Hints:
Layout: H1 3-26, H2 34-50, E1 74-76, E2 86-87, H3 90-104, E3 110-117, E4 120-127, E5 130-136, E6 142-144, H4 147-150, E7 168-176, H5 179-191, H6 200-208, H7 213-217, E8 222-232, H8 240-249, E9 259-262, H9 263-277, E10 285-292, H10 295-301, E11 311-315, E12 320-332, E13 338-349, E14 352-358, H11 362-368, E15 375-379, E16 387-391, E17 416-419, E18 423-426, H12 436-444, H13 456-464, H14 479-483, H15 490-503, H16 508-514, H17 522-532, H18 535-539, H19 543-546, H20 554-565, H21 567-578, E19 598-602, H22 610-619, E20 623-625, E21 634-637, H23 643-651, E22 655-656, H24 658-668
Parallel strand pairs: 2-11, 19-20, 19-21, 21-22
Antiparallel strand pairs: 1-6, 3-9, 3-10, 4-5, 4-7, 7-8, 10-11, 12-13, 12-15, 13-14, 15-16, 17-18
The site of 5-amino-3-(furan-2-yl)-1H-1,2,4-triazole-1-carboxamide (9MJ) has 10 residues, from β3 and β8.
Amino acid sequence: xxxxxxxxxxxxxxxxxxxxxxxxxxxxxxxxxxxxxxxxxxxxxxxxxxxxxxxxxxxxxxxxxxxxxxxxxxxxxxxxxxxxxxxxxxxxxxxxxxxxxxxxxxxxxxxxxxxxxxxxxxxxxxxxxxxxxxxxxxxxxxxxxxxxxxxxxxxxxxxxxxxxxxxxxxxxxxxxxxxxxxxxxxxxxxxxxxxxxxxxxxxxxxxxxxxxxxxxxxxxxxxxxxxxxxxxxxxxxxxxxxxxxxxxxxxxxxxxxxxxxxxxxxxxxxxxxxxxxxxxxxxxxxxxxxxxxxxxxxxxxxxxxxxxxxxxxxxxxxxxxxxxxxxxxxxxxxxxxxxxxxxxxxxxxxxxxxxxxxxxxxxxxxxxxxxxxxxxxxxxxxxxxxxxxxxxxxxxxxxxxxxxxxxxxxxxxxxxxxxxxxxxxxxxxxxxxxxxxxxxxxxxxxxxxxxxxxxxxxxxxxxxxxxxxxxxxxxxxxxxxxxxxxxxxxxxxxxxxxxxxxxxxxxxxxxxxxxxxxxxxxxxxxxxxxxxxxxxxxxxxxxxxxxxxxxxxxxxxxxxxxxxxxxxxxxxxxxxxxxxxxxxxxxxxxxxxxxxxxxxxxxxxxxxxxxxxxxxxxxxxxxxxxxxxxxxxxxxxxxxxxxxxxxxxxxxxxxxxxxxxxxxxxxxxxxxxx
Length: 674
Ligand code: 9MJ
């Protein structure tokens, strides 16, 4: 490529990249994929490397061009940057509107209502369409030079577009960080052990005021423009609405959630609608801004010393506040899950007093390292449970110690079992007060002991009155005790007593499932019953013995072992058996054709379902495992078997089909479909 061709192509690429960057960052409506964009970008980088003289300051490659310069030099704004007065109630808003109407002598005024972003106000100066200077508000007269940092914001055009670009334009707007970007940034900061930002506003401010613009460039900053300072050599929009549309045509990002509204009522409707949508917006806002729409009217109203008389901010109640952690409590939920909760010095957030915030689970608590005595920033958005956004490490008292998660249930004293690190659960399911309703409901459910008529309402009454403390208490309920409960007739009472009576005769598998052992569902209960044959064998098995049960791994084995080690649970089991709960002994597949063999099933068998095949194999005495190893004796493969067959071949394990399994069953005199 000669220089002339390169120059033409570079110019073309700059236009293309600016166009697609605008579609992506400003309009949120990209036309090309990220990889196509990257390809164009790299092509331009390549040309500019070959011909450095073609690299102009407003090239998209130059967003991080400036070296850490004499950043933050003072900049005097061509026109002062005003701030806004505030109102906090509908009544104050009505007073504002009355003052405006009185001064204008108008019966009704139209306003443009805009979300009030909680970021950092900036003024960006374009001359002949090119970005020349960006500054913070500072004291309104003099700000700080943040040009190099603002240039890294992808939604901020380096060159204005359209056919009526003013000779000079000082555009005013808010630099902010979208919620999603904020969450990602904080996650990254956490991973690197760096300081977390308390909220998107602090993150935006901290990111924009970086001495090294390369750091700003990595932060997900965005811009919305909402006004102008100096404007010369171009059109003069007659209203705020026209001004915003004009800015959009120049390629500047303007918030699409704005609206032109009529009078005080229109303002209030907009405010209430936005308040409802607040939690779903992709950015944080702290209120609404109303601006008199007509520029002529704005001029008539004029300015106070620091804020215009034609605009006002209507603030929402704060969604975040800083307070102190007085204690950390551990609550036990209905399923026995332990949730750490921070007890806070009460503080107003989002219009209500907040005194507790969830810390989710022990792992999250450890990761965040929230300590008693810490100052934290708490957030409450909409109806969500208040949560801690950040710990203010710099305010941590010297004597604050990491929280030690209890190893015993704070309600019943049973051991706490960790499930895959995240969830901590009380192992005293049969006795723990916190879990009673849930335990009794589960025990009586259809696939457990199937006690018909023992529904939620009844369980609630029985448990809450203290009549049923453990599931064993169900078996000495008397009809007249039931009759004393709400909405209970003689017939229903008799039926329930009968259903309880009937449930005494069950199966070992159902009984095990009914106990509600953490992580033991129906399939595992079945496998345990088949493997051990009786309850005594299971209760005395150690964790190593438990892992020999098909598909019981170390985590499940630990949960089972912890459950049966708990003396209270054992006492309830004894009481159930003393109450006459029995089951036929399970036929144990000893001395079967495949006794001592390990078999793996894979693919779809034509002859029977997977469950039938598994039951049949276990009936023949085999252990059915889920993965192929050196210890596998046979793999039985159906259609579409996957990688297990390949693994078996590698290890020299025989691979058989459904027909061989049927032959074994025939040999043992068993019907595969039973
Ligand atoms: C914010 N922060 O979103 C203004 N603002 O207008 C909007 N701030 C403003 N307008 C004049 N949308 C001064 C400040």
